[in-house]
Backbone:
């Protein structure tokens, strides 16, 4: 064994003065990242020695490859120890003293013809080691190479000066010793280090020991063959990620190696009528190292509703690995995930329509959100999105078109799809429409105003109208004129009477409607009401939401109750009929609508 001793001083080769303040303040804004970077480097070194052994280029015993993290509060040091391939003194000069020369990249280049890919090594920038100076006033490296060379010790105080000497280390591997600076002594607390390791290293591929126990699971299920996994395995893993969440509805196991590498599991949580975008997040990993849960550049916005894990070495990261850069690979991954999700939903729809319908109250928001925000997803989802009728039955877009085209086309041969945003409050209008042989859709969710707008853009000659937006004869205008039994003078007199009873804030119009319509129909302008609904969930400028809603009172000139008001000029009855209209819109509290109608009819 070579026992040569040496002692050398020198300057770190950099092109920028004061590189360490830049690293500390700008390159890594979150100081806890230092532990992720140093442990990742230890993982790299360990994977390299395993690779060399598998290639027959290292014939020694690998031994226990566990990486150990320890803290000495009294000495104010943190030590990260690995039993990887180590470094010679010359390699320290090359890889440590020349900032931004990536040893990982050189290793990949050397062995690329033997199956080692760039993505197989975590460290790609050569700067991770220097994150140590975010928390340390002095950093030591004590290392011994797997090659027959003397151990070496490197020390630097954060300036550009370093010292390298021989060391007494006899075992292969590297110890990184951080002498923690006074302003970073929070990292000497065991709970603090444990929290960081739990966050970033929970699924590292090499065992990591801290405080006497291994903190990571080296083979998470996303790295395994789906054929070797059970539903229980997936559910158990979900509980590990989200311990306080309900069980997911179903999941997708992602596994692709061309034209990019990506593995992962995406879970479909139960989603009710609210956008739960930030309740839980998809976690992004690179070779089992946690990177971030801000994945908006990798995952389409509507897929942020999903939970789970994505792991890819092909997602480009900046040197701190904290932010994603949108490039061609990211776009390809984005498109792939969208396609896989759509394919899974289509498979469920085709294979088990009944089960799919049972889940639709939970996943409908997600699907509609996707259709609104992503045209490629829309093109696939239009075949498996479902519309729910007021009678609780589900239809595809094509099925509903077939159901309504014989009865709900207007005089211009355009389809009109009636809908309700609150089946309870708008029941009187729904029942009137059903009596006419029309159907009414339930579109009561937060995303539905946007979904309606998207459908009107995409579906040919089809419009959506809320069932209480106007009289039925005007909602679905078939060009048939309903004659009025009242003269113009009688209409004018009735209008004045109802205007006096209704008061300010209502526009009164006397129209000849079918006798099966309500005596007084309360309507809202469709455009303003729709804009108001959208503004409540942030889809339109705020001023729409702040504008007062205006209501129209349509007096049905052909209804027996209105004729009674005309004959008697009974303002009390007129007030009752207006209250009936308000109650039908949920704008008046009181008895049930059914009881109110009975009482009002009895008065006529």
Residues:
């Amino acid at each position: 064994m070579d026992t040569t001793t040496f002692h050398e001083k020198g300057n770190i080769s950099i092109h920028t003065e004061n590189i360490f303040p830049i690293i500390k303040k700008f390159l890594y804004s979150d100081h806890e990242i230092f532990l992720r970077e140093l442990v990742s480097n230890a993982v790299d070194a360990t994977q390299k020695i395993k690779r060399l052994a598998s290639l027959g280029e290292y014939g020694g015993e690998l031994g226990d490859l566990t990486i150990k993290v320890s803290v000495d509060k009294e000495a104010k040091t943190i030590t990260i120890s690995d039993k990887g391939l180590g470094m010679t003194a010359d390699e320290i000069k090359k890889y440590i003293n020349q900032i931004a020369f990536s040893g990982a990249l050189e290793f990949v280049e050397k062995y690329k013809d033997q199956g080692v890919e760039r993505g197989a090594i975590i460290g790609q920038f050569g700067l991770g080691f220097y994150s140590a100076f975010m928390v340390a006033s002095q950093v030591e490296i004590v290392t011994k190479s797997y090659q027959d060379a003397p151990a070496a010790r490197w020390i630097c105080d954060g300036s550009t000066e370093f010292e390298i000497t021989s060391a007494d280390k006899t075992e292969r591997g590297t110890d990184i010793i951080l002498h923690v600076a006074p302003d970073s002594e929070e990292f000497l607390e065991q709970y603090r280090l444990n929290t960081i390791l739990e966050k970033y290293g929970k699924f590292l591929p090499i065992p990591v020991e801290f405080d006497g126990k291994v903190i990571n699971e080296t083979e998470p299920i996303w790295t395994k063959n789906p054929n070797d996994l059970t539903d229980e395995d997936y559910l158990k893993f979900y509980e590990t990620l989200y311990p306080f969440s309900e069980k997911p509805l179903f999941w997708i196991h992602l596994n692709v190696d061309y034209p990019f590498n990506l593995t992962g599991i995406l879970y479909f949580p139960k989603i009710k009528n609210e956008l739960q975008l930030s309740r839980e997040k998809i976690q992004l990993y690179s070779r089992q190292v946690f990177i971030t849960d801000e994945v908006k550049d990798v995952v389409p916005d509507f897929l942020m509703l999903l939970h789970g894990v994505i792991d890819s070495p092909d997602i480009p990261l900046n040197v701190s690995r904290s932010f994603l850069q949108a490039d061609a690979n990211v776009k390809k991954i984005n498109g792939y995930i969208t396609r896989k999700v759509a394919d899974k939903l289509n498979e469920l729809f085709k294979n088990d329509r009944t089960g799919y319908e049972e889940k639709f109250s939970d996943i409908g928001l997600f699907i509609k959100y996707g259709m609104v925000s992503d045209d490629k997803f829309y093109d696939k989802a239009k075949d498996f999105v479902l519309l729910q009728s007021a009678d609780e039955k589900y239809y595809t877009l094509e099925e509903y078109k077939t159901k309504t085209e014989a009865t709900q086309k207007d005089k211009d041969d355009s389809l009109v799809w009636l809908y309700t945003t609150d089946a309870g409050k708008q029941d009187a209008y729904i029942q009137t429409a059903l009596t006419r042989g029309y159907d009414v859709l339930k579109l009561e969710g937060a995303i539905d105003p946007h979904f309606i707008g998207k459908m009107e853009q995409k579906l040919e000659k089809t419009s959506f109208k809320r069932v209480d937006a106007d009289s039925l004869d005007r909602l679905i205008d078939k060009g048939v004129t309903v004659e009025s039994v009242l003269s113009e003078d009688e209409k004018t007199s009735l209008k004045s009477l109802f205007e006096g009873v209704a008061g300010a804030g209502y526009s009164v119009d006397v129209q000849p409607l079918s006798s099966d319509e309500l005596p007084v129909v309360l309507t809202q302008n469709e455009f303003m009401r729709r804009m108001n609904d959208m503004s409540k969930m942030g889809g339109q400028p705020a001023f729409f939401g702040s504008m007062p809603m205006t209501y129209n009172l349509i007096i049905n000139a052909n209804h027996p109750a209105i004729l009674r008001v005309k004959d008697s000029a009974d303002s009390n009855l007129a007030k009752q009929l207006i209250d009936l209209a308000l109650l039908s819109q949920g704008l008046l509290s009181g008895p049930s609508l059914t009881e109110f109608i009975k009482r009002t009819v009895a008065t006529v």
